Each structure stands twice: as structure tokens, then as C-alpha cells.
Amino acid sequence: MKISAHAEKILKIGYVCDRCLGRQFASLLTGLTNSERGRSVRLFMAMEYENKPFKTDINNFYGAGLRKKTKARQAACCICYDIFNSFPNYLEKAQSKLRGVEFKTFLVGSRLSAELETSEKQLWQAVGKKHVESLKNEVNREFGKLFEKETGKKFDKDKPDTTILLDMHTEKVSIQIASVFIYGKYKKLVRGIPQTKWEKYPETVEDIVAGPVMRSLDGKEHAFHGMGREDIDVRCLDWRPFVFEVKDPRRRQLDLNDAKKEINSSGKVRVSGLRFSDKNEVRKIKEAKPDKSYRILIEFEKNITQKNLDKLRALRGKQIRQQTPKRVLHRRSDLERKRKVKAITWKLINGHTAELTIKGEAGLYVKELVHGDEGRTMPNISELLKNRVTVKEVDVVRVWI
Ligand SMILES: [Zn+2]
């Protein structure tokens, strides 16, 4: 269809502002704003009209230079209801919401009112949508331009520090602040603290890391994404990677070195390699399944000899079948899994005690490998040595990243 025929159909519907007129031809020509497109089409159509009048809403040609005087425009644009005129209000609301929030980049999103959605839909049904851009798109882009100009912040559609949401239905503005992510590695030097929140335990690895970070970034909540976790009574003496997430932070800058010093002064948790990170790294950390080596102190019910203990050789390279341990059954489904003992060494300490070092495939339950969990783990050390064994101490000594 000729542009003029298309424009004639649009202008017949009612008064349409430059932006809305131009937006129906948005994919034609580059380097123009929709307002400029709309103005050009309007002037051209005004010439057509003066040359040979056609059925139209005459308001559309007010101020377009017709020789025959037209009446003054009174109506609002029948497509956008002059929504762009309320941008200064939305700008003020956005700025007030963001007062005291530190950010460099932003993104704009919007929710149109039902009448705006309907007016655009009806227009497209009547005249087609071959070259159009949506109203919502223009609202987001144009508000973004205005916000950039007024605040000096940068529009960033991929990784914005904050997202500004304009609700044209309620005329309210809300903001979403992107989380700050900090990558690091930790060691847990003491027993008795869980990695993350756990029933009655008052202190966690997460809390210790959170202390200085939350104070600096003034976040609402936090989350700790660890590459696996050790049991509460297990120390972690090798570096275990994690990403610490601060949700809704009002600030985004912090001295990671100071934070590290404060965390390490806890004497319970040490961190190293702190740096800023992102959501993608959380996924990678959660997907990683590194093997782990453990040092395990075990105690036998009956006396044990070196020769006896040497039977552990049979476990080298062995697949272990493990039914979900009884101690975690309340939160995990009852399944059988197979994990390999990749290496095992042993040292007799005295007639009742030995120290094992076991390298296990990711996911191997080592405590159950030792005592057998009433036959739910097979083979197991108790059964292999025909001697009931209890686990005294476990340390993670190596995370094989
Ligand atoms: Zn309009």
C-alpha cells in the first residue's frame, strides 16, 4: 500500500500526534525520530488535502499550513492520549525512588494502561502494522533518553544496575535494583557452623561473609551460592569457591580487601580471591561437581591390626552404591546413587583408631562409606573389615576444581 493511502486511513480515525503517526512508519528510513517521520507524513498529507480534500479528522492538519483556516486542535492524541506529556512526572517519581541509591546504568520497562493497549491494537487491526514500532517500545526508549539526559546515567539493556518500571495504569514508578555478586573462595577452620542458615545454629559461613559486605552495600537480603557444601561438623581446609549475592543493595562499591580482612579476623572462616562477579558465575558454581578429598579419623569397636586395615585396598577405584543416607532422608528423596572411591590411603594410629584419606567422586557420602548406614551404603568399611566403625572427625582437605 502507498504511504499516502496508509496515512489517509490513520488520519481518518481521529487526531494522531506526530510520534504516533511516525511510529506507524518506524521501520522506514533511518536517522529520524518518529516525531520527524510523523511531521513529514503530516505535511505531505496536508498538501494532498489542499490539492484535493479527502475524508479525514481535520484536527490532524491544524498548524500544518493549510491556506484555508482549520479549527484549533482540542482532542488529545487518540492513540497515546498524550502520555508523553506526563514524562516529567514519571521522571520526578523515578528520581525520588532512586534517591540515595548508587547506580551507573539503568533500563526502562513499562506497563501500559488498558486503554493505551486497546487504542494501539484497534489501530493496527484497522490499518495494518507493516512498518510499526510498538507504543511500549517508544515509551521505554524515549523515557530512557530523557532519564539519561537529566541524570547523566547510562541506559544499558544487558546488565543494568537498576530497572525503572513505569506503570501507566496506576501512574506509579517502581524500581528494581540488580543484585551485587561477589566471587570468592573460603575455608572453614572450625566445626559446628553450617555454610548457610540451618535450624538452631546462630552463626553460619554466610553470616560471617555477610557482615562487612552488607554493612558496606546496605542490601536488604543476601544469598550464599557455594560450590557444594560440607556438613556442619566438617571443616573445609581447602578453598571452596562461592558467590555471595547482595539483594537490593543501595550501594555498589566496597573495598574487597577491607572486607576480606574483617572476615578473616573471625578466626572461623577465611576467604581469598574476592572479586566482583555476576549471575552467570552463580550458575557455573552450582553446576560444578568437583571431586573432594577427605581426612577422616575413625574408631573401631574391636582392636584392629595393620594387616586388617590393609584390606581397605579393595575399595580403590570401587563404585559405591549408596541409598540416600538416613540423616538426610527428611529433605531428599530416597534414591540409590553410585559414586566412585578414586583413591584411599590409611594410617593406623593405635589399636582402635585410624586415619583415612579418601578421594571421592563428587557426591560420595563419606561418613556412610565408613559406617555403612545400616547396609544402605555398600560396600562399606565396617562390613569390609567386619568391625563396627564410628566416624570421629572429617575434614575436606582438597576440592579438586
Ligand atoms: Zn500520540
General description of the model:
Helices cover 31% and strands 28% of the residues. With 401 residues, it is of the alpha+beta class. The strands form two sheets. Strands 5, 6, 7, 8, 9, 10, 11, 12, 13 and 14 form a ten-stranded mixed sheet that branches. Strands 2-1-3-4 form a four-stranded mixed sheet. Strand 3 and strand 4 form a beta hairpin. Helix 1 (3-13) crosses helix 3 and helix 7 packs antiparallel against helix 8 (256-264). The longest helix has 18 residues, at 34-51. The structure holds zinc ion. Zinc ion (ZN) binds next to helix 2. Residues 17, 19-20, 77, 79-80 line the site of zinc ion (ZN).
What's the topology here?
Elements: H1 3-13, H2 18-23, H3 34-51, H4 87-97, E1 105-111, H5 114-127, H6 135-151, E2 154-155, E3 162-167, E4 172-177, E5 180-188, H7 205-217, E6 221-226, E7 234-247, H8 256-264, E8 269-277, H9 279-287, E9 291-300, H10 306-309, E10 319-323, E11 336-350, E12 353-360, H11 366-371, E13 377-378, H12 381-385, E14 389-400
Parallel strand pairs: 1-2, 1-3, 7-14
Antiparallel strand pairs: 3-4, 5-7, 5-8, 6-7, 9-12, 9-14, 10-11, 10-13, 11-12
